[in-house]
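REQUEST ID: PR-0412
SUBMITTED BY: lab tech R.K.
PRIORITY: routine
TASK: structure prediction, single protein chain
INPUT:
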Amino acid sequence: MIMLYLFPVCNSPTTLFSFLFAMEVFPKLFFVFFSFLALVSADLLPDAHALPENPITRSPHVNSNSVLVALLDSHYTELAELVEKALLLQTLENEVGHHNITIFAPMNEALERGLDPDFKRFLLEPGNVMSLQTLLLSHIVPKRIGLHEWPKLATESTLHDSLARDPVELTSQDSGEMFVGSARVIHPHAVNRPDGVIHGIERLLIPQSVQQDFNNRRSLRSISAIKPAGAPEIDPRTNRLKKPTPPSKPGSLPVLPIYDAMAPGPSLAPAPAPGPGGPHHHFNGIEQVKDFIHTLLHYGGYNEIADMLVNLTSLATEMGKLVSEGYVITVLAPNDEAMAKLTTDQLSDPGAPEQILYYHIIPEYQTEESMYNAVRRFGKVKYDTLRLPQKVMAHEADGSVKFGQGEGSAYLFDPDIYIDGRISVQGIDGVLFPEEEAKIFSHATAKVAAKPRRATLLEVACRMLGAFGQDSHFTSCH
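STATUS: complete
OUTPUT:
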């Protein structure tokens, strides 16, 4: 039709030839041009079959009736919180979209109070998220397990692979109770949904791999808290390097001597001795000292030494700390008659009561029998005292043990007033002084006839108040 319409225009042979050429060639060009456009369009425009799927639409849709929603809204909120902290919600949504699942859920009480605090702290640490995921996935089986899946006989068991690839063993007992591993099923079919079921169990299932990770981390933690070794210390008394203290077994006596644990002078300080007491509380020295002081009061005749220990000095506290650190002591306690012979001049010097008591404390555990056997065998025995470097001499006399020499001597008068394995209290009938001080006191007494006075707490306190001009306020001091 186009040719008939254009033909009258072509009235010359040349024009007709050109028209025929155009009509023959152009269709081929048009065909080639549209073929090229088709190829280019195929490469540039995405094919419907080649379009990647949207990941949101690809993931399965979880409706409000899903078992996962029921888990978040059920009585197993502790387990649901662990699932969220382990970043497992998306993984469980994908599993629910493909098949049913079974969740063995521990009760909240089992996760709050029935779980080791150190193990729970281990699971919640950010670096242990893999262990937490393995633990939680071992409670989930990618299939629906009903009550008929449990074996009927107690001798039988069935295994099901969990999402953690660890098998879950189902067993029963003759009483009808059902078990998942070592946990008893207390709420079977607690939640039943079209895409899964939840069975309530009494406690958490811990895979062996997670337990091994926890044990490894705990053992590493115990050896990672080693304090760095500092510069070598020099002993100020000897100007030599201090040797490290060898380790001692719990309950054994301290390696360091008792003098290293004592505070200098009458003031007190924490004892640095590495004895088994103190931080481990193997010995309660304060209570033991209270017991022997009460024993002195109930025994009768030793009120003055008890008052001096508790009120006039702070030696009772220091003795308690020494016993708490594992040291043992023997107290030679003068009776009230012997304490009455002390003069105020002997007690008025600063620190005099402490020095007197230090000389009556032996850093050993001795009983009347052990001391008597020693003096019977060796004749004379010198015992160390807490008053360095003074020693107290003991020898046999009149079938008993006598301490000191000359006028400053005392007999073991009341043996074994208190013995408990750590503290030994032996009653004596005199106040002991070192040999040099005994000579000074005896010489001063011969030149000046000083009137003996009872060294009671009230008398010494009035003397101290008189030094400050405050004795007039107390009628007992007149």
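NOTES: The longest strand covers residues 183-193.
REVIEWED BY: pending
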